[in-house]
Design brief:
The chain has 67 residues and is of the alpha+beta class. It has one domain: Alpha-Beta Plaits. It is 15% helix and 21% strand. The structure holds iron/sulfur cluster (2 copies). Its cofactor is [4Fe-4S] cluster.
């Protein structure tokens, strides 16, 4: 048995991110983690609640389509 392919996360952090950290503090599931100088959404933890999208001051978090 191989590894299960990673599910795409319901949200993605785009290059518009200013690194303010508001989304990290807001996410109730701690699904947003620093990854080098960028942020990564951990798909296995993200529930798609979209609280991060609402709190981001620069609309840097996109909601994936087709879900
Ligand atoms: S959608 Fe909700 S669970 Fe997913 S990263 Fe944003 S705040 Fe966290
Ligand atoms: S709230 Fe928006 S600008 Fe701030 S760290 Fe998160 S994605 Fe980046």
């Amino acid at each position: 048995m191989g590894l299960t392919p990673a599910e795409p996360a319901p949200v993605t952090v785009t290059g518009r991110c200013q690194g303010c950290g508001a989304c990290l503090l807001t996410c109730p599931h701690h699904a947003i983690r620093p990854h080098g100088l960028a942020l990564r959404i951990r798909a296995e933890l993200c529930t798609g609640c979209l609280e991060c999208v609402e709190v981001c001051p620069v609309d840097a978090i996109d909601v994936a389509t087709g879900r």
